[in-house]
Amino acid sequence: MNLLHLMESQSSLRGIPAVAAGASAAGVRETAALGPDAVTAESCFRIASLTKVLTSAALVRTMRDRGIPLDTPVRDLHRALAPDWRADEGLTVEQVLGQVSGLRASVDAATAAALGDGDDALLEAARLVVRAGNEREPGERWSYDNGNYFLAGSLLAALSGTTYERALEGCLLGAWGLKRTGFETPEAPVTGWSGTTGIPLSDYPRARRPSGGLWSSVADLLAVGEALLADRALLAEIRRPRTRPGDPMAYGLGWALGPSGQMYLNGRLPGYRAAMVLVPDREYVSVALANEDGALPALARLLSDLQRPVTGDDLAPAVDAFAALPPKQPTA
Q1: Which CATH number characterizes residue 197's domain?
Q2: What is the pLDDT of residue 329?
Q3: Which residue, of 17, 65, 168, 232, has the greatest Cβ tally within 10 A?
Q4: Residue 100 located in a structural domain
Q5: Which intervals hold domain Beta-lactamase-related (predicted)?
């Protein structure tokens, strides 16, 4: 399938200032871009909740390297949180990464931003998360909340003996050769748009970074997918469902799970939309990034059409709807 031809034929992509997309099948890549804002596979967009993919993978790898099982209680590993701990004492790392922690959604975007940009901001956010306690038993039900990833990022920092950002760079970004992925505003970033209004560049609050703070490119995100496909043990842990049959969706560690073994998610921040799909059993990964608030349904359709010859599934509604939150909740 010719990617650029597919993009040009999709009317819903017209009018979006910039769309960059790519697919990798058994390591063979194809990339393309569309729109009046000139971009390439190397152009940097905010990727919002796709950041969770890297936070999850980094924490799973770090624990594996230290011989720590994922069913270890968080409280046993993150002793700095012990004085503030009001959550279930048996809450495990995999329950946090799998969004089945049962933790009360208590730390919104404004609260996290108010913690400042010091090295202790993420730890303070994690303290607020566990201080709020549980609203249901761990493992009882899937419920998407960025607070889970504030806690996960803080644990990654604690296990690594450094900041979350340095831990992610040392464990993953450097190891996977991700040269265009990071938290600092890159050179020549893609401008985000909300309708006809440009979104001013601003720093992403440090306390929220593990849930959605990264800039990245199509090329780097294809490399993320390829690295996951190459590390079969890591992939097996991440794609194993942590949800129950009655949950709103099947979910592993940072990824929603599709009907034919797909792994998928989307990301949303003002001015930016991102989506990604893996089909592990077919060595396939695809990603699409855009710089406009209304672009997500079109990106979901594009990625669904790309993977449909492989799986036979229409995945567009699921990719579009993933982790849709009520307005009062912070998005990533």
Answers
A1: 3.40.710.10
A2: 39
A3: 168
A4: yes
A5: 19-295
The answer to whether position 215 is within a domain reads yes
DSSP state of 192: E
Which two three-digit tokens encode residue 226?
């390829």
**Cross-strand bridge partners of residue 278:** 263, 285
CA distance 265 to 251: 10
Buried b (16+ CB within 10 A) or exposed e, 34-67: bbebebebebbbbbbbbbbbbbbbbbbbbbeeee
- Percent residues over pLDDT 70 in the chain: 97
Strands 45-46 and 215-216 turn out to be: antiparallel
Q: Report DSSP state, residue 236.
A: H
Taking the C-alpha atoms of residue 56 and residue 167, their distance in angstroms, rounded to an integer, is 12
Chain position carrying tokens 């202790």: 120
Q: Scanning the structure block, which residue is given the tokens 């930016």? A: 272
Length of the chain: 332
Q: Cα dihedral sign for 53, 87, 116, 143? A: positive
In three-state secondary structure terms, 324 is coil
Number of domains in the chain: 1
Which residues lie closer than 8 Å to 78 by C-beta, 6 or more apart?
126, 154, 155, 158
Residue in the block written with tokens 């059409």: 305
Q: Are 211 and 52 in contact (CB under 8 A)?
A: yes
Do residues 273 and 300 touch, judged by C-beta distance below 8 A?
no
Q: What range does the domain containing 179 cover?
A: 3-321
Encode pLDDT of 128-140 as tens digits: 999 999 999 999 9
- Phi and psi torsions of 27, nearest 5°: 85, -5
Asked, for residue 327, whether it belongs to a domain, the answer is: no
For residue 332, being part of any structural domain is answered with no
Tokens of 51: 């950041």
